[in-house]
Amino acid sequence: MPRVVVDVVLKPEISDPQGQAVLGALGRLGHPGVTSVRQGKHFVLEVEGTPDAAELRQIAETLLANPVIEDVELHLPSD
Amino acid sequence: MRIGVITFPGSLDDVDAARAVRLAGGEAVALWHADDDLSGVDAVVLPGGFSYGDYLRAGAIAARAPLMRSVVDRAHAGLPVLGICNGFQVLCEAGLLPGALTRNGHLHFRNRDQALLVERADTAWTSAYTTGQRIVVPVKNGEGRYVAAPAELDRLEGEGRVVVRYADGNPNGSSRDIAGVTSADGRVVGLMPHPEHAVEDLTGPSVDGLGFFTSVLSSVVTA
């Protein structure tokens, strides 16, 4: 069954305290070379038949992500 | 005057909200999220809690509940709607209020009595207050940091859409100390603090919260 992947991350202008906490831990663990962490969500959808890109984009932008604060990346099987 | 209080799976403060409605002199009507119609209520309260366990985003799944379609339709026609804490998150997710609520800046759940300044005393839910009045009600949230794009915040401030602002310290890192906002017509109000927990001397830090519930009674009478 085709799998569609949707990645959701906070918009660059929205601060991400969870990502910052991860970054702080990396510094304490001896990884000073990592300069930024942004935490997001990763959805894997299994779809019957050929995925409808328009429908999936609508799903991603209206439910999986909140466009007020988040950006969405849609990865169809052909990507 | 019949004020509906919607219970979602995971709502916690629906009973307190209904009690606040009754103490203010209204009739509280229990509404269930999976129903389709609003039973003819004159106003609606979306209570606090953790609807759907805050899965996906706080309020995101509740905002798509069957009853919310009726709430959105009726709100566009002027139905007074109050969202408290999780209810505020639901109203933002449903598109009835601007902005979004995100993880607190310090990552801690914050639970304390909180001073607020009332900046709009002419909405359906705040007419019992005076502009600039200082009130104290409990705040308790882990995802209460109000955010919006800077241009959007400027627009909201310019339109006077901030109803209440945190005073004496911002509990969660909300942009510009914003604790609550209103719709353009002043009928829909959402705030993170809990006025329904400040309606009786026995259990609250004050009775300052009662004004939200008495306000809507007069707004419904005059509407």
UniProtKB/TrEMBL annotation, chain A:
Part of the phosphoribosylformylglycinamidine synthase complex involved in the purines biosynthetic pathway. Catalyzes the ATP-dependent conversion of formylglycinamide ribonucleotide (FGAR) and glutamine to yield formylglycinamidine ribonucleotide (FGAM) and glutamate. The FGAM synthase complex is composed of three subunits. PurQ produces an ammonia molecule by converting glutamine to glutamate. PurL transfers the ammonia molecule to FGAR to form FGAM in an ATP-dependent manner. Part of the FGAM synthase complex composed of 1 PurL, 1 PurQ and 2 PurS subunits. SUPFAM superfamilies: PurS-like. Pathway: Purine metabolism; IMP biosynthesis via de novo pathway; 5-amino-1-(5-phospho-D-ribosyl)imidazole from N(2)-formyl-N(1)-(5-phospho-D-ribosyl)glycinamide: step 1/2. It is an enzyme of class 6 (ligase). It comes from the Bacteria. Transmembrane segments: none annotated. One of its GO terms (biological process) is 'de novo' IMP biosynthetic process. This is Phosphoribosylformylglycinamidine synthase subunit PurS. It catalyses: N(2)-formyl-N(1)-(5-phospho-beta-D-ribosyl)glycinamide + L-glutamine + ATP + H2O = 2-formamido-N(1)-(5-O-phospho-beta-D-ribosyl)acetamidine + L-glutamate + ADP + phosphate + H(+). GO terms for molecular function: ATP binding; phosphoribosylformylglycinamidine synthase activity. GO terms for cellular component: cytoplasm. Its EC number is 6.3.5.3. Signal peptide: none annotated. Belongs to the PurS family. Gene3D superfamilies: Phosphoribosylformylglycinamidine synthase subunit PurS. Its main location: cytoplasm. It is found in: Cytoplasm. Keywords: ATP-binding, Cytoplasm, Ligase, Nucleotide-binding, Purine biosynthesis. The keyword DNA repair does not apply. The keyword Cytoplasm applies.
UniProtKB/TrEMBL annotation, chain B:
One of its GO terms (molecular function) is glutaminase activity. It catalyses: L-glutamine + H2O = L-glutamate + NH4(+); N(2)-formyl-N(1)-(5-phospho-beta-D-ribosyl)glycinamide + L-glutamine + ATP + H2O = 2-formamido-N(1)-(5-O-phospho-beta-D-ribosyl)acetamidine + L-glutamate + ADP + phosphate + H(+). GO terms for cellular component: cytoplasm. Gene3D superfamilies: 3.40.50.880. Pathway: Purine metabolism; IMP biosynthesis via de novo pathway; 5-amino-1-(5-phospho-D-ribosyl)imidazole from N(2)-formyl-N(1)-(5-phospho-D-ribosyl)glycinamide: step 1/2. Its EC number is 6.3.5.3, 3.5.1.2. GO terms for biological process: 'de novo' IMP biosynthetic process. Keywords: ATP-binding, Cytoplasm, Glutamine amidotransferase, Hydrolase, Ligase, Nucleotide-binding, Purine biosynthesis. SMART domains: GATase_5. Coiled coil: none annotated. HAMAP family: PurQ. This is Phosphoribosylformylglycinamidine synthase subunit PurQ. It comes from Goekera deserti. The lineage of its organism: Bacteria, Bacillati, Actinomycetota, Actinomycetes, Geodermatophilales.
